[in-house]
Design brief:
alpha/beta, elongated, two-stranded antiparallel ribbon, 542 residues
């Protein structure tokens, strides 16, 4: 531990600034005290501001409340200018998403699948009534949430301009059908009306939900293109269905509009459980790629991935064929990239026939004409059991509604969902948030450690540079002193030469002014030659 000399608080050895007052703890490591004066002041200001950060209390879980209190402070730190400039903005977004998850406390069960795998039909079977559109195509891809509510309502959110531009630019070469239907419905004429539109909330009767939902989710209506998300509140769900539990009907992962696929990927990562719908009749490359994608987004918690083989009733011999197909799926989906063990695969892979279930559930409420039509698929399914049930399956298929509902397996899936997820949603949600919190803290610690190394290197470099600069300055001053000494010597020598030259020259001039005398001339010439020789020696080195 390191004691702060300013406030006396004991700090961890790894700290550089006091956690209480912000004072620098490593003064002995720095020769130049001015180097840490400004950071110390900044740290003091930061700690003072952190005390004033508002806290959104989480009343449903005290541990999660502590997570939120901590992350709110870290999130605030990322808003400080000189910290924001040196850190990844993605980290700040992750913290904001985490805070939203904690505040809303939604337990999200995402339903994923390629087109026509029956995920919306499965959702309707689990909800007990047809709410979700069952004519899903690549053109109807608004993300739709279903949750329990005291009142029935439909809430619609729209893309803003920036989001719509990204969506339009993200279309792949396979989006020709999307564009064709978009033009056919003259949707562009309504774009300005709906892009950026305020959220719409409609309170409706439960019986009208399916019809009122169509304009926002059906490919028959142009406005559905501009819908980002729809939330449906349902008042008559079972009592054991908490309002925090949300079914999410997602756009397909293989959507030709990549932006919508990205929305699905985000929900898979965020979801507390994922139900992936694949055709019971096949598990080919496209289906495997979808499953592998889901596992890659859920690699930290593979148990949350549940696989439902849909349209089970369409197998030639459902019981026998499913036994073979199920074992094949166990083999294909056990390993490093999927379920860790075969036991995990067996616990998380099952089948369904949601269409048969919904048909039998709604049969008593259908008109006579609709009942007659419903008997055809019922008989096709029951003929597989004629040896057990007798010939009445052909003449009176409506007598076997309970049998077909049991075989369709929806009650088993709902029981699994209730026992593993719904009844324990608080515990599961708390554990998922704890894992998310730990991931964020790990990333923050890594960022701090990297920043610490960088700052320490900069500090060392700064000190090294200062020493080097001082050394260079000292050498420069020595050189300048030597130059000045040489300059002074040269000036003195030049002055002496100048004096002696003038003296000798005056003698020559005096001799030249005297009357002619051979001896004087001879003496004068000698003096002149001596003086000239000295001048030449000074100026020409001769």
């Amino acid at each position: 531990m390191v004691k702060c000399l300013k406030c006396g608080k004991d700090n961890r050895d790894s700290r550089y600034f006091c956690a209480k007052c912000g004072a620098f703890l490593r003064a002995d490591e720095v020769n130049e005290k001015g180097l840490v004066a400004l950071p110390e002041l900044k740290m003091m200001r930061i700690l003072e501001n952190l005390k004033e950060i508002p806290h959104s209390q989480i009343i449903w879980d005290s541990v999660v409340d502590n997570y939120v209190a901590n992350i709110e402070k870290y999130r605030a730190l990322y808003e400080i200018d000189d910290i924001k400039e040196n850190h990844n903005s993605e980290m700040a977004r992750e913290m904001e998403v985490f805070l939203n998850h904690c505040r809303t406390s939604e337990f999200q069960i995402a339903f994923v699948g390629t087109i026509k795998t029956g995920k919306s039909t499965l959702i309707n079977a689990l909800l007990g009534k047809n709410y979700a559109s069952m004519s899903v195509t690549p053109e109807t891809a608004a993300l739709t949430k279903f949750r329990s509510s005291e009142k029935d309502y439909i809430k619609v959110n729209f893309y803003n301009t920036k989001e719509w531009d990204k969506l339009w630019k993200s279309m792949s070469s396979g989006a020709d059908k999307f564009k064709e239907e978009y033009e056919k419905l003259h949707a562009d004429q309504q774009k300005d009306k709906w892009i950026g539109h305020d959220e719409i909330i409609q309170f409706v009767k439960n019986a009208d939900i399916e019809e009122k939902l169509k304009p926002w989710t059906s490919s028959q209506f142009p406005e559905h293109y501009f819908v980002k998300e729809v939330e449906v509140g349902i008042s008559n769900l079972p009592n054991e269905f908490p309002s925090q539990v949300v079914f999410v009907d997602t756009p397909g992962l293989s959507d030709p509009v990549a932006y919508r696929s990205e929305i699905t990927k985000k929900y898979i990562r965020r979801a507390n459980a994922v139900f992936v719908c694949v055709e019971a009749q096949k598990l080919q490359q496209a289906e495997l790629e979808t499953l592998l994608s889901v596992f890659s987004f859920s690699k930290h918690n593979k148990k949350k991935v549940h696989i439902i083989a849909t349209h089970w009733d369409t197998l030639n011999h459902p019981e026998e064929n499913w036994e073979e197909q199920r074992n094949y799926m166990y083999d294909q989906l056990t390993g490093k990239d999927c379920y860790d063990t075969r036991e995990m695969a067996e616990a998380n892979i099952t089948y369904s026939s949601a269409y048969i279930h919904n048909l039998c559930r709604d049969y008593p409420l259908l008109s006579q004409d609709a009942q007659d039509k419903a008997k055809i698929p019922m008989m096709k399914f029951l003929i597989n059991y004629i040896g057990i049930l007798g010939n009445d399956v052909l003449s009176k298929p409506e007598s076997f509604l309970d049998f077909m509902i049991e075989k369709a397996n929806i009650p088993s899936i709902y029981k699994l969902m209730q026992e593993r997820l719904i009844d324990n949603y608080r515990d599961v949600l708390s554990k998922d948030l704890a894992k998310e919190y730990q991931d964020i803290m790990h990333k923050l610690k890594t960022a701090v450690q990297e920043s610490r190394v960088i700052k320490k290197n900069l500090l060392y470099t700064a000190q090294s540079d200062l020493v080097e600069r001082r050394k260079q300055l000292s050498e420069h001053e020595k050189a300048c002193s030597e130059i000045r000494r040489c300059q002074e010597q040269l000036q003195a020598y030049i002055k002496n030469v100048d004096f002696r030259t003038k003296k000798n020259l005056s003698k020559i001039l005096a001799a030249m002014d005297a009357p002619p005398n051979p001896s004087y001339l001879k003496k004068g010439k000698k003096l002149y030659d001596e003086a000239l020789g000295k001048v030449k020696k000074v100026f020409w080195g001769k």
